[in-house]
Amino acid sequence: MNIAMTVSYDGTSYYGFQTQPYGNTVQDILEAGIRSLTGEEELRITGSGRTDAGVHAHGQVFNFHTASRIPVERWALALNSRLPDDIVVRDAARVPDDFHARRSAKRKTYRYTIDCGKFPDVFARHYRFHHPTPLDRAAMREALRHFVGEHDFTSFASKHSTQPSHVRTIYEAELVEEGSVIHLFITGNGFLYNMVRIIAGTVILVGEGKMRPDAIPDILAAKDRNMAGPTAMAHGLTLWRVQYEEYAPEL
User: Fold this and answer.
1) For residue 250, is it within any domain?
2) In this structure, are 78 and 113 located in the same domain?
3) Domain total for the chain?
4) Enclosing domain of residue 173
5) How high is the pLDDT of residue 161?
6) Prediction pTM value
7) Is the separation of the CB atoms in 177 and 137 below 8 Å?
8) Which stretches of the chain drop beneath a pLDDT of 50?
């Protein structure tokens, strides 16, 4: 049986989603919980993508194959009883045998959150990048529009990216205001290492007046990481949603 799950987690205490040699990842915690339920010591999960240390998820998706007879409707509650408070499975469903959380994904949405209040919110400080001076939100919206479409995102990828192609398609890029808080929502068919954080860092420069919005096309064309802005802090980033044809969790 192939089971897909949607999980939310606070990434503050973890070294990212994907298993690392030094441990302490969200994947490690999830696999340990599932193995304790099934007794399948070789069980591995497949995530829809990796998140860096300190990055959060509202709707990360993973799947795994199991011979367990636990009814699918009981999986979320059973697994949550074996997880720490900062990781919560929100949905579980049986999916076709060929469903693959990463390869089957059609769209992914990330949210980057900026707090422009004079003082940081002590209760939300792990989820927002604090920027205590005003930002030009109209200019930031204009900059975001230039990312929509199919582009080579070499200028907006880490120099450590190992992907053979840096061409990706951005379907939507919007700025949503919530008082002093700004959310950047970016939806695409896939993302490169640090891509959203570099986009966010660049758009913040535009908001500060240190870069023109119409500079974005030239930065994309340059295919040079040095042309774009800094990599924004990890804690402001959340993997918001992953969309599929075979699996549609309610978030």
Assistant:
1) no
2) no
3) 2
4) 107-241
5) 84
6) 0.95
7) yes
8) none
Residues belonging to the binding site are: 110
Got the DSSP string for 38-86?
H--TT---EES----TT-EEEEEEEEEE------GGGHHHHHHTTS-TT
The predicted pLDDT at position 159 comes to 87
Summarize the annotated binding site for substrate as residue ranges. 110
Nearest to 124 by CA among 56, 60, 186, 177: 56
* Judgement on whether residues 121 and 39 belong to the same structural domain of the protein: no
Question: How confident is the model at residue 190, as a pLDDT?
Answer: 93
In angstroms, rounded to a whole number, what is the distance separating the alpha carbons of residues 46 and 34? Answer: 13
Q: Out of 10, 52, 91, 115, pick the active-site residue.
A: 52
Instruction: Clarify whether residues 95 and 113 are in a common domain.
Output: no
Mark whether 90 and 113 lie in a shared domain.
no
- pLDDT reported for residue 152: 97
Vertex 25 angle, CA 20 and 30, to 5°: 120
CATH code at 26? 3.30.70.580
Those residues with Cβ within 8 angstroms of residue 75's Cβ, 6 or more apart along the chain or in another chain: 3, 5, 89, 92
Residue-level pLDDT at 204: 98
52 is catalytic: yes
